[in-house]
Design brief:
By secondary structure, the protein is mostly beta strands. The protein has one helix at 40-53, and strands spanning 5-14, 20-28, 67-78, 83-93, 105-107, 119-125, 132-138, 143-148, 157-163, 176-184, 187-196.
């Protein structure tokens, strides 16, 4: 019988205290090192997104807060009953005048475009935008990739843009540091540092 781990996550959030809560549990099978890589940041991000969406929030204004504090409690138990506990604290300061509600980021980072894994740029929109662009520069300041963001990704909510680490002509970019700019309504709203690491 293969060993399994029981993972129990409790997400608590509020402005001054953690008055709201939701939970998620999952039984997982540990992966032998060297055979597979698990994108834990992506898993946590999807849990945050799904739990926040579960309370029927269509806009940051629905939260009724300016400074959202969240606490993610993680409990992992093996078949022998051994339990490991950890807590992750994250705070978000919202500005209703800005299009983006929180800092955008990408995962995985760094990533390899040789292996074809690519990276996802995640951003959260507070109010609908009329236009959007993703512009990526190399360390020398040259534009290597440009993409017009389509209408579904300009609506209020959490969005993802997949980038395969290639330039606008489809050629793989070399290892190095790149800078992604998210532009909405002809104004640059966010800069993200992206690292390509080809082995």
């Amino acid at each position: 019988m293969t060993d399994t781990l029981d993972v129990f996550l409790t997400l608590r959030w509020g402005e001054e205290d953690y008055m709201n809560s939701d939970s998620f549990s999952q039984r997982i099978k540990p992966v032998q090192l060297g055979l597979e890589t698990i994108n834990y940041s992506g898993i946590l991000d999807s849990i945050y997104t799904s739990l926040i969406d579960s309370v029927d929030i269509s806009s940051i204004k629905d939260l009724g807060v300016q400074n959202l504090r969240t606490k993610l409690e993680i409990s992992i138990t093996d078949q022998a009953g051994n339990e490991s506990l950890d807590t992750l604290f994250i705070s978000f300061l919202f500005d209703s005048g800005k299009i983006l509600s929180a800092s955008a980021f990408n995962f995985p980072n760094p990533f390899s475009n040789v292996e074809g894994e690519g990276t996802q740029i995640r951003y959260l929109i507070n109010k609908e935008a009329s236009s959007g662009k993703l512009i990526i520069f190399n360390a020398g300041g040259n534009v290597v990739y440009f993409e017009v963001i389509s209408q579904p990704n300009l609506m209020i909510g959490t969005h993802y843009i997949k980038w395969n680490g290639r330039n606008s002509y489809g050629y793989r970019l070399a290892s190095g540091v790149y800078f992604a700019f998210l532009e909405f309504n002809d104004t640059i709203n966010e800069k993200i540092k992206i690292v390509i690491l080809n082995k």
